[in-house]
Amino acid sequence: MRYRSLPLVALALLATSGCATAYEETGSELGSAMLMDRSGNNVGSAMLYSEGDEVTVSVSLQGMPAGTHAVHLHTTGDCSATDFTSAGGHLNPMGNEHGTLNPQGAHLGDLPNAEVSSAGVGTISTTLRGTRATVLTEIFDADGTALVVHEGADDYRSDPAGDAGSRVACGVFSQS
Questions:
Q1: Exposed, middle or buried, 162 (CB in 10 Å: 0-12/13-18/19+)?
Q2: In DSSP terms, which residues pair with 34 in a beta bridge?
Q3: What's the rounded Cα separation, in Å, for the pair 165 and 147?
Q4: What is the pLDDT of residues 13-66, one digit of tens each?
Q5: What secondary structure does DSSP assign to the chain, as a single string?
Q6: Is residue 99 part of a domain?
Q7: Phi-psi region of 133 (alpha: psi -120 to 50; beta: other; left: phi over 0)
Q8: Is residue 4 part of a domain?
Q9: Residue 73 belongs to a domain with what CATH number?
Q10: Domain for residue 116, yes or no?
Q11: What is the pLDDT of residues 117-165, one digit of tens each?
Q12: Is 69 in contact with 153 (CB distance < 8 Å)?
């Protein structure tokens, strides 16, 4: 009599086996940042997560102007200046030139452009250059790291910042 429920339990386990969050499916969450525009409005978020020895950053934008926007990791976890210059320059621990199309390499902070739709929504997800330990040491150092969204597209070449225009959104990473 006790075994009558066994098929039901097995069916329930089977039915829920595919249920998992994105982070459970792709790796463990390492940190996050809430992105704010110059008026203090929440315009998105960024998540850091790992899978094996790699770190991936995923950025979700909403309420942003339509178009192509550069997205970069910046050296200082500080978005207090209204123009977000307090975030410093691009995260570049190896002293490389700017741009993923640059034959001399790229900054750790060089991320893909985000295409924002007419509805104000856009996403990017990319694996950061370097090992998990190296990347996390740089991002979670004493002064932290900010993720900055720019008004225009990154040309992936111009040093030091890709000719992407002013900073329109910023968020500071906190460790999970």
A1: buried
A2: 45
A3: 15
A4: 333 333 333 333 457 899 999 999 999 999 999 999 998 999 999 999 999 999
A5: -GGGGHHHHHHHHHHHTT---HHHHH-EEEEEEEEEETTS-EEEEEEEEEETTEEEEEEEE-SPPSEEE-EEEESS----STTSGGG-SB--TT-PPS-TT-TT---TTB---EEE-TTS-EEEEEEPSS-HHHHHHHHTSTT--EEEEESS---S-STTT-S--SEEEEEE-EE-
A6: yes
A7: alpha
A8: no
A9: 2.60.40.200
A10: yes
A11: 999 999 999 999 889 999 999 999 999 999 999 999 988 766 666 567 7
A12: yes
Measure the CA–CA gap between 61 and 45, rounded to whole angstroms: 7
Length of the chain: 176
Inside any domain, residue 15: no
Cα distances from 113 to residues 18, 59, 146, 154, 167, in angstroms, run 32, 11, 16, 6, 14
Q: Which amino acid is at 14?
A: L
Number of domains in the chain: 1
Residue 135 sits in which domain range? Answer: 21-175
